[in-house]
């Protein structure tokens, strides 16, 4: 009788242990398979980089409709937009990008791929938000469905709550730096309620007490205090206005942590073109992968008779406008993106991102610097965010060579503007609901 009971108990214990081990086991198995695939693709990329001309030719042949790929002439002149917009990222390219991301992240931060060691902050109510490491869903402690909650504030709060629950977080990932900033602002303003929710819902009173203690000590470097094992902040984009948000985060809540922007995307994030293989470097630079898209380049500033050059014909230190063929049906799209070639990896160009404002070759970085300088003329003013559109007031009458912009800015720390200063900032239309102590005005 007794041996039978003991055997049953052992069997139950074994089953329990196996079931408990399965998610961790599953994670380890898939992680090592994906890392092997990532390393394989990395080697293939090295090989492709030894002959970018051939890789680009192959890519173009795959993009052209059947029967038209023969005898294509040398591409020249300005590109035109043809065909169907908004076809989603091709799964093959997106998968290869993610594999390179997992491989690169693991090489730089060996503990970064721990199960549930990544929290994702992103809001995408109409489509699923695709995180950088999507082939390995067990990486994330935040549920995928949270990103599609209709209210942005609610989505970020739910994701933050899941992240707070996990003390052993290694990576904090945000689709946009602004989302991370807003989630941390919600922590700043609502930590007592968040601590209460942690104690009641998770329920973990120890963690709730930790949260209360750390928030009471202030918010500088709060991210590293709440998650002591955190190694890196991953952001989906870090240029233009998003760069401002990264700078604010680096100086306050995320002090002491490296920021890593893994991908270079174009056409509103639809096309993946390059990958950042250097996560430890503060300024992102991207390797253009020769078999992800067919790229042509217009030397910038524009020449009298613009003539495109190919991926293998770029010069280090020069800037180029991008003409992209990334999907069947969308050929030679002139995107207005300006890239600066900072070096080469084999024959593949390494670029940094400099979006132009209206395709007129003013890199967005330079535009942003000028704007910051202009804002600096008001004592105490700080630029929080901006968006720039072509001026509708002058319209076509301004001519193609003299574009005028309408810049909407969100400022903080600006009070009691004199009448003279007010007129400089133009009319009284608000773009953002001004936060207390800030003002948002169009600058014409
Ligand atoms: C509760 O929080 C503490 C401190 O962060 C942690 O060590 C512990 O593992 C957590 N417990 C559970 C069940 O998650």
TrEMBL record:
| InterPro entries linked to this entry | GH3, GH3_M
Q: Name one Pfam family in it.
A: GH3_M
Q: Which domain of life is it from?
A: Eukaryota
Sections of the chain in a coiled coil: none
This protein's UniProt keywords:
Membrane, Transmembrane, Transmembrane helix
- What are the GO MF terms of this UniProt record? acid-amino acid ligase activity
Q: Does the keyword Nucleotide-binding apply?
A: no
Q: Got a GO cellular component term for this one? A: endoplasmic reticulum
Specify whether Transmembrane helix is a keyword of the entry.
yes
Question: Which segments constitute the GH3 middle domain?
Answer: 287-351
Q: Where are its TM segments located? A: 6-26
This chain belongs to the protein called GH3 domain containing
Q: Which organism is it from?
A: Strigops habroptila (Kakapo)
